[in-house]
C-alpha cells in the first residue's frame, strides 16, 4: 500500500487545518494509504523533502487540529511552475512511496493540481493530484463558496458590529473606515453588510469615483451624523490602480502588496473637510486566521471536504479533481451543503468577482439576495476546547 | 422614594454594560429607587437632561445588555469641571427627583465623583455620587484590576496567538509588530505575554532605546528566524515623547491621540536593514469593545460590581465612594474575587503603571509573577446568545 501526501498553500484561514484533519481522520476510518505524510511549508518544504507523519494523530489531537487556525503544516509564497520543480515533486513522491497528493489551497494551488496532473499523464506516471479548496477571498470558480471564507466573514461581521457600537457611543463628528482583505474580489468586505451596520461599501468590482464617494459620505454625515465605511483592500480606480497603491513592491508571485485603502479614504475625507477626524481599523490578518469567531457551518464543511476528497480517492481514476461545495436545500427548505467534484483545470487561475447585480449603486451596500447568500454561511458557533482562557491549538508541525 | 441616575463615561469596554445591567437588576431585586434613569452620552447628555428610563427592562433584555459591548447609554469626551456644570448637574438631578448618581468610568469619572461629592457637601446638598470603575487600560489605583481590562486582554491574547500562528506559517524573513491600546500604562500590551508568543515587548514604563531594541530584533531574527513584537500605544522616548508622535493634535481633554507606535517600529526595523518587510497589526478598538472573546471572570465581576454599588447605597451615608475588586483566595487556594469600597478621592486622577519589577530587561517580556497576576483574569467563556451567527446586542439607548 502506498502513502499519500497532504500539503497546504497560500494564505492561512481559520479552517484550513480542519480539511487536513478530515484527510487524516478519513484514513483512520478507511486506510486507503499506509501513511499520511504532511508536506511542511507548502510546496517549498515538500520539494525539499520535509515531511511529517500525521497518520496516527490521536482523536484528541485531531479535535484540537480542527480548531487550530492558520496552517499547521506551514505555507509558502513560492512560484511552482517550472519543469525542474515538477520533476523534483515526482522524485519526492517516489522517494517516499507516495501515490497521491492532496493539495489544500486557493487559485494557484488548484492550477498546480491541474498542471501536475497533465504533466504526469503525458509521462504515464502513476501519480495522482487532488485539490481541496480554501480561501478567505471566496474567489474560486464553480463552487458556491470556499472553505475559510465564512469564518473570515463571521469575524469581520463581529468586529464590524462591535466597532460600530463603539463608534455610535460617541457624538463627535468623525467617520469610521474598516478595511478587510479579499484581494481582487469584494466578497469579504460585502459580507459585513449582514450586520446592518455598514453605511457605505467600497468594493473592487466597482471603479472608484472619488467625487461620488465623498458626496455620499457628506450626505450620511448630514442625515445621521455618522458614517461607517467598509472598504476592500483591492478597491481600485477606473484604470485598475489600487486605492492603496503607494509605491509598494509586489511580492515574489507578482501579487501587489495590498493594505492601506482605508488610510487613503481617510485622507480624502479629511482633506475634503467633511469631518476633522476619521478612525481607521484595518482587520488585516485578524479576519483570516482567528478561531474566536469560527462559523460552525464553515468548520464542518471544511472538515467534511477533507474526508470527501480522501473517500473519493478510493477510485484509482480520481485525479486532477477538486472537491467543492454546492448550495442545496434541506428537507426543511433551509440551507444544505452538497459536495461535488470537478476538474481542477476548469477553475484554474480564474478569479470569481462578487456579482455586480448584487451591488447597490453609490456605495450603498448590497442587495437582499446577497444577504440571503451570506446568511447561512456564518451560522453556528463551535464549542472550542479552551485552556487557561484561550482556545487550545496544535503546535505547528513546521515548527517542531 | 427618589430616583437614581446611571451614566457611562470614557472609552467603551466589553463589559461596561454588564455593570449597568447590575445596577438595573439590583434595583428590581431591592427597589431602593423608584426609577433607574440612564444619562445618555455620559455627562454631556446628562447635563442636557437626556435621560432614559431603564427601571423595567425585562430579564431577557438585561441578559442581552450584559453581553453587549461598548456603551449602551453612549459616552462623551467632555471636560466636566467648572462650577456651571456642577450646578447644572444638581439642577438635572433636582428636576428628575434624583438622589443618587452612579457613574461608570475611568480615572476622570472617579475624579468627578470625588469633586461632586465635595461640592455637594460644602453646600449641604442631599445628593450622592458613587463610582463604578471601568477601563481597559487597568490603570486605576487601589484595586487589583479594573473591569473591562480582562476582556480586552483576552481579545488581545487570542489575536496575538492567532496572528503568531499565521506569521509562523511562513518562512520569509519579516518581523511582526502588534500594537495594543493602554494609554500610558502597559498592562494590556503586557497581558499578551500570557500566550508565550511574544518575543519582544515594548511598554510605556520603560524609556525606549532604539539601539537596544533593534539589537534585540536582530538577535531574534538570527536565532530563530522570526520576531514577534508587541508594543503599547503609549510607548515613549526618555523625554516623554510618544513613539507614535507625528504632529497629531490632542483631543478636547488634552489627551494625545495615540496609535502609530507599531508603524514607527516598523520603519526603524526596515530602515536598519534587519528585514525587508514588517507586518503591522493595530488592534485599536477591536480589543476594547469586542464581545467575541469576553472573559467570564470579567463579565461576572463587572455585573456584580454594579449590584454591589447599588446594594451599598442602601446606607444613606454611602457617597463619594468607588466600589472595586481585590484579589482574594478561594477555599481551593485559587483566585477569588473580593469586593470593597474606598473613597473616590483616594484614586482620583492617579495612573497606576505596570509594575517595573515585573518587566524583564531588554524588551524580553514580563516575569512569571506578572503572568500569575494575569492568568486568572481571562478565564472562562460566557455562553453568548447569538442570532443569525453573531452575538445579540442591545440597541443603544442613545440611538433610539
TrEMBL record, chains A, B:
Its cofactor is Mg(2+). The active site is at residue 137. It is an enzyme of class 2 (transferase). The keyword 4Fe-4S does not apply. Catalyzes the phosphorylation of D-fructose 6-phosphate, the first committing step of glycolysis. Uses inorganic phosphate (PPi) as phosphoryl donor instead of ATP like common ATP-dependent phosphofructokinases (ATP-PFKs), which renders the reaction reversible, and can thus function both in glycolysis and gluconeogenesis. Consistently, PPi-PFK can replace the enzymes of both the forward (ATP-PFK) and reverse (fructose-bisphosphatase (FBPase)) reactions. Belongs to the phosphofructokinase type A (PFKA) family. PPi-dependent PFK group II subfamily. Clade 'B2' sub-subfamily. This is Pyrophosphate--fructose 6-phosphate 1-phosphotransferase. It comes from Senegalimassilia anaerobia. The lineage of its organism: Bacteria, Bacillati, Actinomycetota, Coriobacteriia, Coriobacteriales.
Amino acid at each position: 500500500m502506498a502513502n499519500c501526501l497532504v500539503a497546504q498553500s497560500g494564505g492561512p484561514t481559520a479552517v484550513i487545518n480542519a480539511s487536513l484533519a478530515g484527510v487524516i481522520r478519513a484514513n483512520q476510518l478507511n486506510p486507503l494509504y499506509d501513511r499520511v505524510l504532511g508536506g511542511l511549508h507548502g510546496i517549498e518544504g515538500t520539494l525539499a523533502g520535509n515531511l511529517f507523519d500525521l497518520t496516527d494523530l490521536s482523536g484528541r489531537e485531531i479535535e484540537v487540529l480542527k480548531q487550530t487556525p492558520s496552517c499547521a503544516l506551514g505555507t509558502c509564497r513560492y512560484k511552482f511552475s517550472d519543469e525542474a520543480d515538477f520533476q523534483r515533486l515526482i522524485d519526492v513522491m517516489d522517494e517516499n512511496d507516495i501515490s497521491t497528493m492532496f493539495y489544500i489551497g486557493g487559485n494557484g494551488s488548484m492550477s498546480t493540481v491541474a498542471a501536475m496532473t497533465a504533466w504526469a499523464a503525458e509521462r504515464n506516471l502513476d501519480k495522482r493530484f487532488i485539490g481541496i479548496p480554501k480561501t478567505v477571498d471566496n474567489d474560486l470558480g464553480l463552487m458556491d463558496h470556499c472553505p475559510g471564507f465564512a469564518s473570515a466573514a463571521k469575524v469581520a461581521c463581529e468586529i464590524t458590529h462591535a466597532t460600530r457600537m463603539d463608534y455610535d457611543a460617541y457624538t463627535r463628528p468623525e467617520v469610521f473606515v474598516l478595511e478587510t482583505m479579499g484581494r481582487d474580489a469584494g466578497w469579504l468586505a460585502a459580507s459585513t453588510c449582514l450586520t446592518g451596520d455598514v453605511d457605505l461599501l467600497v468594493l473592487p468590482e466597482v471603479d472608484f469615483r472619488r467625487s461620488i464617494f465623498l458626496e455620499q459620505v457628506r450626505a450620511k454625515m448630514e442625515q445621521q451624523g455618522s458614517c461607517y465605511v467598509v472598504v476592500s483592500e483591492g478597491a481600485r480606480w477606473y484604470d485598475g490602480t489600487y486605492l492603496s497603491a503607494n509605491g509598494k513592491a509586489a511580492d515574489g508571485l507578482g501579487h501587489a502588496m495590498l493594505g492601506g485603502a482605508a488610510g487613503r479614504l481617510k485622507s480624502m475625507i479629511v482633506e475634503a473637510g467633511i469631518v476633522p477626524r476619521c478612525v481607521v481599523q484595518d482587520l488585516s490578518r485578524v479576519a483570516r486566521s482567528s478561531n474566536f469567531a469560527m462559523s460552525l457551518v464553515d468548520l464542518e464543511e471544511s472538515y467534511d471536504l477533507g474526508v470527501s476528497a480522501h473517500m473519493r480517492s478510493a477510485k484509482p481514476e480520481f485525479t486532477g479533481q477538486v472537491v467543492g461545495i454546492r448550495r442545496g436545500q434541506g428537507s426543511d427548505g433551509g440551507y444544505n451543503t452538497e459536495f461535488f467534484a470537478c476538474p481542477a483545470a476548469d477553475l484554474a487561475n480564474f478569479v470569481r468577482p462578487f456579482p455586480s447585480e448584487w451591488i447597490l449603486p453609490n456605495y450603498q451596500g448590497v442587495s437582499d439576495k446577497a444577504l440571503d447568500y451570506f446568511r447561512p454561511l456564518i451560522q453556528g458557533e463551535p464549542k472550542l476546547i479552551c485552556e487557561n482562557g484561550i482556545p487550545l491549538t496544535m503546535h505547528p508541525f513546521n515548527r517542531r
